[in-house]
Amino acid sequence: MHYGTNNPQLKYNLNGVELKDSECERDLGVYFSTNLKWKKKIISSTSKANLMMGMLKMTFLRIDAKLVKTLYKVFIRPLIEFAVPVWSPYFKGDISLLEKVQHRMTRLVPSLRKINYEKRLEILDISTLKTRRERGDLIQVFKLLNRIEEIDLINKPKLKIDSITRGHNLKYERETVNYLPWYHF
Predict the structure, then answer these.
(1) Mean pLDDT, residues 41-65 taken together
(2) pTM for the full predicted model
(3) Which residues on adjacent β-strands are paired with residue 33?
(4) Angle CA(144)–CA(145)–CA(150) in degrees, nearest 5?
């Protein structure tokens, strides 16, 4: 597997056997592709979640709001949020695929079927998956800035030196990149 457009894509050997090139590899349940797009991971996660939702739907005869919320948090959400800080989606289509799973799960409650999605989330006291991802990212940045958690990074982010009249001194400087997946990585 080779990353980058200027990569010479060398051939590697192991015990005299040439290793095959790969466009996509799975490691610890996350699919990594050479272009750093996460479509395969998202399709895999949503299909597993939809299968689980189908099994839950056939298992329980009467489903109320409390049961749906519990089943969702225990069985469905872990499938679609596994290792999400690594592969957090940034394309609207990918985000939509993930949200559709939560959308379908909230419709399992017969009394909530006719209510719009945002209102169902409010009634069930569930936030959108995008909000949860953003919240998790903000918590992680807070921990790094305040040295609550230390991560050994090769290229550590630099604090942005800003004007003393605006904002605060805990801002990261964003690196300039020309390739969309690297921007979100």
Answers:
(1) 93
(2) 0.75
(3) 24
(4) 30
